[in-house]
């Protein structure tokens, strides 16, 4: 698990290899990840958007931007946490992801970015 704190918001990520799949005569490797967003600040915040950079050792880097996460824009009060799961497919057995969330601070009405730490996506049999 990797963890990072930005502006009082703690992001923790755990990953898991889910298996390989065939799509249009191509092998793809599926990974899931669970992200915990914990509000260590004294302000109420809302996750509004996400930005991902997905690195695949056999493919180009993919950028993904969107509103919220898994169809939600959660409001997280001080001391509380929000947990969600998602996933991605890679062309290779080795990759990584990182990015940031855009959050709104309800106290100051200002938006700010919370870094998502780089986490590795590795197929277990590909690691020495």
TrEMBL record:
Matches recorded under Gene3D superfamilies: ApaG domain
Residue spans crossing the bilayer: none
InterPro entries: ApaG_domain, ApaG_sf
Residue ranges of domain ApaG in the record: 3-128
Descriptive protein name: Co2+/Mg2+ efflux protein ApaG
Protein species of origin: Flavobacterium bernardetii
Gene (name only): apaG
């Amino acid at each position: 698990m990797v963890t990072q704190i930005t502006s009082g918001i703690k992001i923790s990520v755990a990953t898991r290899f889910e298996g390989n799949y065939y799509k249009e005569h191509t092998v793809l490797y599926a990974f899931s990840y669970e992200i915990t967003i914990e509000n260590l600040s004294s302000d109420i915040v809302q996750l509004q958007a996400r930005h991902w950079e997905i690195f695949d050792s056999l493919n180009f880097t993919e950028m993904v931007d969107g509103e919220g996460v898994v169809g939600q824009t959660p409001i997280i009060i001080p001391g509380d946490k929000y947990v969600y799961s998602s996933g991605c497919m890679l062309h290779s057995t080795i990759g990584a992801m990182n990015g940031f969330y855009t959050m709104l601070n309800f106290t100051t009405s200002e938006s700010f970015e919370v870094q998502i730490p780089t986490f590795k996506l590795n197929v277990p049999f590909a690691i020495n």
